[in-house]
Amino acid sequence: MPETDTSPAPRRALGISVENLRKSFGSTEVLKGISLEVKPGEIFVMMGPSGSGKSVFLKHLAGLEIPTEGKVRIDDINVADDRERPKVRLALVFQAGALFNSLSVFDNLALYPREHRLYDRKTIKEKVEKALAMLSLSDAAEKIPAELSGGMKKRVAIARALVMEPDLLLYDEPTSELDPIMAATISEIIADLREEFGVTSLVVSHDRDLAMTIGDRVGIMQEGELLAIDTPAGIRQMDDPRIKEFLNPAIDLKNPRFKRSA
Amino acid sequence: MRILHQYLSEFGQAFLLLVRSLRHLPSLPRQMGRVIEQCYLIGYTTFPIVAILSFFIGSVLALQTGYSLQTFGAVDFIGTIVGLSMARELGPVMAAILLAGRVGSAISAELASMKVYQEVDALITMNIPPERMLVLPRLIAVLLMMPVLAIVAIIIGWLGGAVVASQVSFIGLDPRIYFDGITNFVAFKDVLDGLIKAQIFGFSVILISCHVGLQTRGGPREIGNSVTRAVVLSLIAILFLDYFITQALL
Amino acid sequence: MKETLNTARVGFFFLMGLVLIYIVAQSLSTGTLFRDRGYELQAQFTNLQQVKEGDDVRVAGVKIGTVRGTALEDGKATAILTINDEVQVPIDSKARVILSGLLGTNQVDIQYGESSEYLSDGDTIETLPTTDLNEIFAKIGDVGDRLDGAFDQVTEALRSITGDEDEPGLFKNLNELVVENRESIRTTTKNLETITDTIARGEGTLGRLLQDDEVYQSIQRITTDLESVATNAKGFSGEIQVLVEDVQGIVRKVEAGEGTLGRLLSDDSIAREIELVAKNLREISDRLNAGEGTLGKLLSDDALYYEATAVLRKAEATLDGLGNQGPITAVGIAASALF
Ligand SMILES: Nc1ncnc2c1ncn2[C@@H]1O[C@H](COP(=O)(O)OP(=O)(O)O)[C@@H](O)[C@H]1O
Ligand SMILES: [Mg+2]
């Protein structure tokens, strides 16, 4: 049976190995040969402008896209293979949340442990409520996703990923719709998970502050190519004008169009 | 030729979806809640429209046969004709067509929306196969509900025929003769054949709708296209299967 | 809360479906979903017709059970009847297959016997031969054929009397006989006249002979002979009349029987046969009445008889002159040759 995990496996840190990953949709090549190693327990932040292929890259890690070329392995498991993927316990926080619209917030969170019968009802309830509280969602438990704002949806998506108790967490722009305070909370959560359980995290974001604060290493991606991988400090010192441009966009404050706001 | 090939591959993929769904049969006892929920949608909410439509189908059938048969003074046979047509053909086909229009479209819309908004992807990352959670309960529910819908369609169609046969002045058939025509010449096997037919139709409609919904790619606009495709494919399947099942059951 | 409500609705809905299917199965003619309660009887028929599973078993029109199945046992059609438990069927009852409607629905009808013993589960009930609608029609057809044959025979018989072009009938034979002998009869008559003339003239031995008692008596004997010939002829016509009456009787009976036989006789060929017979009969009687043919003349005109008596009267008047026996013997021969 496909249901392999019936009890919560002890958490183990997972390493990611991506080798010359290429992906084409029709004639347009979105990923142009990406190679990358993420060590177990590492927090890796992938940055890049919109449309550079970050989300597509993340889907490959979750096994939702099949590489046109190259290999994606998580802890030596080929996630592109439907039969092998379930061996990896990973959670993906989708860019748009991907909440189950027919289920309440509570049921969205409880679905995974219930389906896999990880805990009894009471424990599930406790764990769900704890995750909701972490993201200040306790009042929204009985709401359905349609009643939530964009930021709340994102938080529910993160809470849902936490309840899954994964060994690898993939975040697709976790802070994009959140206020700075909540963004800080997310940063703390990511850091705590690594502290507590050694969870490996791969965060896709164009939030410079987030990348620089929590990232062990940062990758810069542009038009399907990985320009650089380095520590936040290393990245900051890079000379590549494309990276400089991305990290510190030269905004001409003397431009008359900004006058009013300035 | 290309269209035919396209339809055939569509049905083939739907069949593969069925096989993948059946692999999750052992999970069924845990999914009874979903099965009942789907039963409610497929059976209970579809019941009124099926009842109304089959009443009118039976009425029209009685009216038409009555009009034709009065020329020969053979209106006594209306019961038999309406009885057999409703049981063997129209009851099951009507129930299945309404199912396609009402439930099949809703299922394909729901699954297409889940696909477009990445809910299906979310399920996959959670190691919850969509076939298990989204397809299997619906297939089981339609198996449970379709015979009910079909027998309702058949009986209400008969009643509709009886009302017209007795109330329309140029027919004026005693309901007792009408129902004698049914009880004497419609065998339970005819009704059973109708129920089997309905079962196969309903199952195909739900399977096709699930398949089309899960096949959806692209943005929200594709949801509408998927609904159209699901209904069209369902109707084609119903009429196509109707011929072969009828021949097989004769 | 809402979930349990829906569960209840779905449960109710599903149960309703099952109940509806059960009701339909029970109402329709071949409900085999659930077996009727009751005991079983077997009935062997020569022909089960269209009796099928689920047909009614009735006593005087009241349903007491159903036909549970049909089978062929030892080449005999066997129906297994399920009889309601509360109904007791006497041991000498008889079952038969009857049509309950012109549309062809059959049923098994049981005629109760007198016995106070009752049939029990697994027993075999006696049966009456099946009246098959087809057989009835076939029989009616047979009757028609036989009637046809009978009429053919009547026609044939009459034809043998009247005769036709190819085959001379009895009447024709008679006719021919007379026609053929007409000359000799006339000659004889002429001869007789000559004789009587001669006698009248009292010439020859004949005249003398007539004087003789013996001769007179023999003449008288001849006359009686002739008379009896005539009576015989009359009697024969009587027989024909009886025959005619018989045929007419048949025709009348057939005509009277038209109501019961219904359209059977509307068969053209039969009607034509009967018409032909009637025509033939009429022809015969017409011909007889019109005195056609010698027999006719013989019967209606009595021509020969009168002629003969005239001859005799003349003969009487001239008995005196009769002297020769020869011609008298010739008259006798002529008369006896005629009949
Ligand atoms: N399923 C798809 N089919 C075709 N093109 C796609 C698909 N998904 C993404 N793309 C294209 O790939 C490119 C990268 O998209 P994406 O990874 O979503 O960008 P981002 O870095 O903003 O997340 C975009 O140009 C997008 O149009
Ligand atoms: Mg993206």
Fraction of residues in H or I helices of chain C: 55-70%
Helix and strand run of chain C = HEEEEEEEHHHHHHHHEH
Count of strand segments of chain B: 0
Question: Approximately how much beta-strand content do the residues of chain B carry?
Answer: under 5%
State the shape of chain B. elongated
Summarize the structure.
The complex is a heterotrimer of chains A (262), B (250) and C (339). Chain A is α/β, with parallel strands linked by helices.
Task: Summarize the structure in words.
The complex is a heterotrimer of chains A (262), B (250) and C (339). With 262 residues, chain A is an alpha/beta fold. Chain A has eight helices and ten strands. Chain A has a six-stranded mixed sheet with strand order 6-7-8-3-9-10, with helices on both faces. In chain A, helix 2 crosses helix 3 (121-134), helix 2 runs parallel beside helix 4 and helix 3 packs across helix 4. Chain B has 250 residues and is mostly helical. Chain B has one domain. Chain B is 84% helix and 0% strand. Chain B has helices at 2-22, 32-44, 47-69, 78-116, 119-125, 130-167, 175-185, 188-215, 221-249. Chain B is elongated and about 70 Å long. With 339 residues, chain C is an alpha/beta fold. Chain C has helices at residues 2-27, 133-162, 170-200, 205-211, 213-256, 258-261, 268-289, 293-301, 303-317, 326-338; strands at 39-45, 56-59, 62-73, 76-83, 94-99, 106-111, 124-127, 322-323. In chain C, helix 3 (170-200) runs parallel beside helix 9, helix 5 (213-256) packs antiparallel against helix 7 and helix 5 runs parallel beside helix 10. Chain C is rod-shaped, with a radius of gyration of 42 Å. Magnesium ion binds next to helix 1 of chain A.
List keywords for this structure.
heterotrimer, B: 250 residues, mainly alpha, C: alpha/beta, seven-stranded mixed β-barrel, 10 helices, 59% helix, 14% strand, rod-shaped, disordered C terminus, binds adenosine-5'-diphosphate, binds magnesium ion
